[in-house]
Each structure stands twice: as C-alpha cells, then as structure tokens.
Amino acid sequence: MTTIRPFKCEDLLNFNNVNLDPLTETYGLSFYLQYLARWPEYFQVLESPTGQIMGYIMGKAEGSEAQEQWHGHVTAVSVAPEFRRLGLAAKLMSSLENISEIKEGFFVDLFVRVSNKVAVAMYKQLGYVVYRTVLEYYSGDPDEDAYDMRKALSRDKDKKSVIPLKEPVRPEDIE
C-alpha cells in the first residue's frame, strides 16, 4: 500500500530514483529546505511499503490572502519512472489541492513545458485548463514556452481564476 506522508529532511538523501530522471526539474538542497521550512504542509512524499520513495510533490501558498489571487502553487511533482502510470501523480495533486482548499485558496496553478504533451494531457484530465502561455519561460531553453495551468477551487464559485487570457505573457509579466 502506498503512503502519502510529509517530506522529511532525510528524504533528500533518498529520492535520487525520482530526481535523477530527465523529466524532473531538480534544485539545490537549500531550495528544497526552504520549501520544507516555509510550506511543510505542501511538501509530501509517496512511499512504498518497503520504504522506497515513489514520488513527491512540492508546493506553496501564493498571492494575497485578502484577494482572489490567493492560491496553491505546484512547484514540482514527480514520480519515479518505475512507478508511473499508476495514478500516483494524480494522488499527489489531489493532496495538494485539498491543502489549498483548507487554506481557502481560489485555485491551484502550475507551470508545464508546452512540449510536455503527456503532462499537459494528465493535468487536463485532472481538471486543469491552460490559463495562459508564458513565452520563453525556461531560462535554460529560451525557445521553450510554458503553460500556466489552473484549476479552480470551491472558493472561486464563478471560476474567474481559470478564464484563459487571450494573449501570451512574458516571465517578467507574471505576478
């Protein structure tokens, strides 16, 4: 049975099977520790019955709590290659969405490479829509754009947060 549990510092020493995959964006240790210290409820791991890390999700709360921009943000979600196609990413996403509901967010957002058709299709299947295209979002690849995908939460009764923008934006235009 797969268990979702809070990410712990020692997990940083045991998640290479997830992080060394070419589809996974990796960060420095200080970045992970910053998220763990600031938004621990948004940083979770999937663990197998044998204790192997199968995947993780890292996110945060963003925006102004008093405005309709208050939301949960998915910084990274990844599942080890040997555990893909089992619905584990959907389980992680659902968990982060639930946390964002508890925090009274209006929506959850994430950025995904336009070229990552598998991920885009998965997010659409989970109820996310392309809110806007961000031109040249990825600094290591200036030709790679990102989709800013969003899913409205129950607090956004009119679903205003997911009405797509007609024109693409640049990274510096993102709030």
Explain how this protein is built:
By secondary structure, the chain is of the alpha+beta class. The protein has one domain: Gcn5-related N-acetyltransferase (GNAT) (Aminopeptidase). 22% of the residues lie in helices and 27% in strands. The protein has a 7-stranded mixed β-sheet with strand order 1-2-3-4-5-7-6, sandwiched between helices. One of its GO terms (biological process) is regulation of actin cytoskeleton organization. This is N-alpha-acetyltransferase 20. Component of the N-terminal acetyltransferase B (NatB) complex which is composed of NAA20 and NAA25.
Give the gist of this structure.
This is N-alpha-acetyltransferase 20. By secondary structure, the protein is of the alpha+beta class.
CATH class: Alpha Beta
Largest sheet: 7 strands, mixed
Count of folded domains: 1
Number of helices: 4
Enumerate the strands of the largest sheet in spatial order, edge to edge or round the barrel.
1-2-3-4-5-7-6
Q: How would you spell out the order of helices and strands?
A: EHHEEEHEHEE
Query: What radius of gyration results from the CA coordinates?
Result: 16 Å
By CATH, the architecture is named 3-Layer(aba) Sandwich
> Under CATH, the topology is which?
Aminopeptidase
